[in-house]
Amino acid sequence: MIRGNRPIRKAVIPAAGLGTRFLPASKAIPKEMIPVVEKPILQYIVEEAAASGIEQVVLVTGRQKTAMEDHFDVSGELEDALKQRGKDALLELCVKLRELVEVVAVRQHEPLGLGHAILCGKGVVGEEPFAVMLPDDLVDGEGRPGLRQLLDVYEERGEAVVGLIEVPPPQISWYGIVKHEPVAPNLYRIWDMIEKPRPEEAPSNLGIVARYVFPPEIFRAIEETKPGWGGEIQITDAIRKLAGERAVYGWVFQGRRFDAGDKLGYLEATLHYALKHPELGERFRSLLLERAQSLSGGKAG
Ligand code: G1P
């Protein structure tokens, strides 16, 4: 039964950041365009959106980031050249890519924080519930795409839903951490949350990550939110405000989540997707085993 009244069609992807954690790779190309195996990180996110039923993606971008829009747009010369050379499979790949979703780009003119970036999508989203997908986070959902898992909760409950993971203690201060109460397997009611707490003030070990589903009222909550952690307008503080007025749920992702915005997390994501790759997977696995064997002095395997 759909209690979330309107199906969600739009997803905002905040992608205006400078990507300093990925310098020098991100100096002249957006960090979201750095590939994991053969696809840019952003393509995984947009494919997850499409597989979850999203029809329109609102990319919140900044200067020097037009490569992101171009990637999902028609490339006339390229498609003509592929057609002429009879490269049908590659042509089909390009056509599929631009047919995934409609991409609309809006600019965040000043780096005022994640909450502010999401607010930049307000004009395109309008008075509809919508999703937010953070492009640093890759989610390989088990059974259902990561965002779909949250949308299913939204459709049943009709309230905001945030993605959660269990955070290892040393990483508590990297995340928004929630105070929660269990309501069903993997599902929690969220009562409070703190953005990047010190370990001693963390209300639990569950951290908000990757994907969110919001009613349009979140925009007003963001507008009323003062700068918080790091002097920026934080989405966590706006959700906290929303949680004081209506229910907010948290869903622990089923599957794997990678922080592709972190160098080691990026390498882990590369390993994961390379091993799953239909053409490369098997050979990559042999390479990996060979390497592991030599690293452990011939004892692995
Ligand atoms: C953002 C959010 C934070 C969340 C994190 C992981 O922080 O502000 O609440 O836990 O993403 O998805 P950032 O990593 O952009 O500093």
What secondary-structure arrangement, pairings included, does this model have?
Layout: E1 10-14, E2 35-36, E3 39-40, H1 41-51, E4 56-61, H2 66-71, H3 76-84, H4 88-99, E5 102-107, H5 114-119, H6 122-125, E6 130-133, E7 137-141, H7 146-157, E8 160-166, E9 176-184, E10 187-195, E11 206-214, H8 218-223, H9 235-243, E12 248-252, E13 255-259, H10 263-276, H11 281-295
Parallel strand pairs: 1-4, 1-6, 4-5, 8-12
Antiparallel strand pairs: 2-3, 6-11, 7-13, 8-11, 9-10, 9-11, 10-12
The structure holds 1-O-phosphono-alpha-D-glucopyranose.
Residues 114, 134, 137, 175-176, 195, 207-210, 234-236 line the site of 1-O-phosphono-alpha-D-glucopyranose (G1P).
Counting DSSP H or I runs of 4 or more residues, the number of helices is: 11
Order of helices and strands: EEEHEHHHEHHEEHEEEEHHEEHH
Fourth-level CATH superfamily of the largest domain: Spore Coat Polysaccharide Biosynthesis Protein SpsA, Chain A
**Count of separate structural domains:** 2
Radius of gyration: 20 Å
User: Largest sheet at a glance?
Assistant: 5 strands, mixed, barrel
Strand order of the largest sheet: 8-11-9-10-12
The end-to-end distance, rounded to whole angstroms, is 49 Å
* Beta-strand proportion: 15-25%
Task: Report the strand count.
Answer: 13
CATH topology of the largest domain: Spore Coat Polysaccharide Biosynthesis Protein SpsA, Chain A
Shape: globular
Q: Which ranges are low-confidence, i.e. pLDDT below 50, for 5 or more consecutive residues?
A: none
Q: What small molecules does this complex bind? A: 1-O-phosphono-alpha-D-glucopyranose
Using the 3D structure, state the CATH architecture of the largest domain. Alpha-Beta Complex
Q: On the 0-100 scale, what is the average pLDDT?
A: 94
For the record, what CATH class of the largest domain applies?
Alpha Beta
Structural class: alpha/beta
Name the quaternary structure.
single chain
Instruction: Give helix % range.
Output: 25-40%
